[in-house]
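Please describe what follows:
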Amino acid sequence: MGPALAVGPQLPIFDPTGTGLMNPAEAARAAEELGFDIAFVGDHLAFNPPWLECIACLAAASASTKRLMLGTSVVLAAMREPAWLAKQIATLQFLSGGRLLLGVGVGGENPAEWEAVGVPVRERGRRTDAFLEALPRLLEGRPARVGAPVDLPIPELRPAAEPPPLWIGGRSDAALRRAARFADGWLGAFVDAGGVPRHRERLGELARQAGHTEAPRIGVSVFINVCDDIAGGREEARAYFEGLYRLPLERVERYCLIGPPEHVVEGLVRYVEAGVSLFTLVAVAPRPFAQYEALAAVRAALLGAVGAAPLELGRPLGCWE
């Protein structure tokens, strides 16, 4: 039997090319009908394009689906009040029937959004760690104190919830340490297939230092435009990256797969061979939703190419304790 994989699209909750926001519930329902394993949302309060709030979007997505796993990739936990975020996580688990995958990251690309919520951007790593340390108790319905620099007592938050699998995002060594300490997996962005082994080796080293027998699994976001007209696909990707990140395509094209389905599948196979088991397929197109059918065909071809089995998406939160 081949490797275990889970594959899903990013839901279109932001609008980098000015073509209009899509309904995340409709997109999630289509993702489920097309056979994807999971669908993801990202998180910003204020960024370059218009952006819907991710927790509300996942609540809408959960109401329109029955099987599909729903993931944050990633929620900026330090930007949010910890008691309310824990309550939202528990509520999503309840509403979805336990279908949440909790991806957590620290962000920092836009200092203005941190200033808007009164959180020093330089504290975001420490605040994230403090939240993650307290979260298992909070989800179990037990009182907990979120440590410094938050330093807040939180009473019982009931009803208790089944802890979701936890994946940590970020490219820094601090993010890898956080993943090795707390998480079921690590979510990478702007990582090409050739860079995956280095991250895998580092995660294994950090897990051993922490006394764990297993390293976190590896997930990546891959930017994709399935097209026959490669020049046209590159122009669509260019508009996407300029609208979202204010970056030229040339800076990020190494992390993209732009071309016909067989080219995209070949690129994803290289990621699998490097050790990736979870994919967020990010459609870099004016209307990402329009790429879902092509991405579903890519997923099916990928699973067939590597003989994949379904990925068990994680041990419970706090598995390292």
